[in-house]
Specification:
Membrane topology: Multi-pass membrane protein
InterPro entries: Glcn_transporter
Radius of gyration: 21 Å
Helix content: over 70%
Shape: globular
Keywords: Cell membrane, Membrane, Transmembrane, Transmembrane helix, Transport
Protein name: Gluconate:H+ symporter
Main location: membrane
Number of strands: 0
Number of domains: 1
Structural class: mainly alpha
């Protein structure tokens, strides 16, 4: 019976967001309360449980998500992202423009929130398209595939970061495994798939061509790369040290402290504030204005994360996990495939990858202790499922369509299929890693 209630509540969540056009945070709160009542949670405890879920979810994530958004905003506004692009374009050359743009999307996409990265990098695609007389979709899909992969697989992006917290995974190991999945997913969904899109003749609007900063106003190449990727170096480095060395005593405590995601983001943002902010002539007031704008950009995501935390807490406290475990044992399906499938179904129904991933994680979190599966791989499996087949109910679908000035048919043929390839390759990669780890 509990499984039917969960299914009903998910359907209601989907309808509230898609049909009733309700704000996702409000939809999560309403459904969380309804789910608690239907699962038999006492009336006087429902709101307390919802509040605990919100606080518990945000408590460990606010620092990482907000500071990550600030870092991404600083990288974009100071011209560090433009510098990274210029360097990669000169390294790869005209014949491998696709690979240059794909690598740019991956490197710049790590610190940038997805929507910010899209708005920042799409005008670059158009500029390169006009300059080299190459069709925009053909060179653009590889870059957008890279952006999508970083959004779905790699911390400190909001969705994978939140999934790490919900599923009790390790941020550093998830990042390392995510890199292993990211490379083949980007290549197959990017340059390989783009070969089938040569005939799509997009007519990008000139309105979206960005004004590039003069070269003498950009940070240096090393400075730009190091400032943007410092969180990756710290998280990945600490995870590798603990994995292969595992120091004890004070050394172990120091490595653990430095590798804590919150400390990583504080150190990275502090360094970037000086290296590509103050050192480049931006006053402290100007840098803080960038950070204020970043908080405005990220606030809707924080509310969605909070709402998902409320729903997860209801699942935990109601005891529904016991029935879920029994149901999983009776189903002849691998837990990682199930995680991917749940997220994929919600993604297709709702459109939001973040909502899909967090809702799926809320369902799976209570049973993670009873299933024999690596939580880091479950994070990636759910993240991959949350990217499946973006279509007309996804804002990213419409951003791509309007920026590239495409028909619905060509948008589905390029964008939707690219997202699906990323999702499926991600699942295959997760299953291969499961055999190895």
């Amino acid at each position: 019976m509990s499984l039917l209630i969960i299914l009903l509540c998910i359907v209601i969540l989907v309808l509230l967001i898609t049909w009733a056009r309700l704000n996702p945070f409000l939809a999560f709160i309403i459904v969380s309360i309804l789910t608690g009542l239907l699962l038999g949670v006492p009336l006087q405890e429902v709101t307390t449980i919802v509040e605990q879920g919100i606080g518990g979810m945000l408590g460990g994530l606010v620092i990482v998500i907000v500071l990550g958004a600030m870092l991404g905003k600083l990288v974009a506004e100071t011209g560090a992202a433009q510098k990274i692009t210029n360097v990669l374009m000169s390294v790869f050359g005209e014949k491998k423009i696709q690979w240059a743009l794909m690598t740019t999307g991956f490197v710049v996409g790590i610190p940038l929130f997805y929507n910010v990265g899209f708005v920042l990098l799409v005008p670059l695609i158009f500029s390169v398209s006009y300059q080299f007389k190459i069709k925009a979709v053909y060179i653009g899909i590889p870059m957008l595939a890279a952006l999508s992969v970083t959004h779905g697989f790699l911390p400190p992006h909001p969705s994978p970061t939140a999934l790490v917290g919900q599923l009790n995974a390790d941020m550093g190991l998830t990042l390392i495994y995510g890199f292993c999945l990211a490379v083949p997913a980007i290549i197959l969904a990017g340059p390989v798939f783009a070969k089938t899109l040569r005939n799509i003749d997009a007519k990008p609007l000139k309105t979206f061509q960005a004004e590039a900063k003069p070269e003498d106003q950009l940070p240096g190449a090393f400075n730009s790369f190091f400032s943007a990727l410092l969180p990756v170096f710290l998280l990945g480095g600490a995870a590798l040290v603990q994995l292969f060395w595992a120091p004890a005593g004070l050394a172990g405590q120091i490595i653990g402290f430095i590798g804590d995601p919150s400390i990583v983001m504080i150190l990275a943002l502090a360094y970037a504030t000086y290296s590509i902010g103050l050192q480049q002539g931006y006053g402290m007031k100007g840098v803080m204005e960038f950070y204020t704008d970043a908080i405005k950009d990220i606030s809707p995501i924080l509310l969605i994360v909070a709402g998902a935390g409320a729903l997860k807490q209801v699942f935990v406290v109601s005891g529904v996990s016991i029935e879920l475990v029994s149901g999983l044992q009776d189903m002849n399906i691998h837990p990682l495939v199930l995680g991917w499938l749940i997220a994929a179904i919600i993604r297709v129904c709702i459109g939001s990858a973040t909502v899909a991933g967090l809702t799926a994680a809320g369902i799976l979190a209570p049973v993670m202790g009873q299933v024999d599966v690596d939580p880091n791989l479950m994070v990636l499996s759910v993240g991959a499922g949350s990217l499946l087949f973006s279509h007309v109910n996804d804002s990213g679908f419409w951003m791509y369509k309007e920026y590239f000035n495409l028909s619905i048919k060509d948008t589905i043929r390029s964008w939707s299929v690219m997202e699906t390839i990323v999702s499926v390759v991600g699942l295959i990669g997760v299953m291969i890693l499961d055999l190895i780890i």
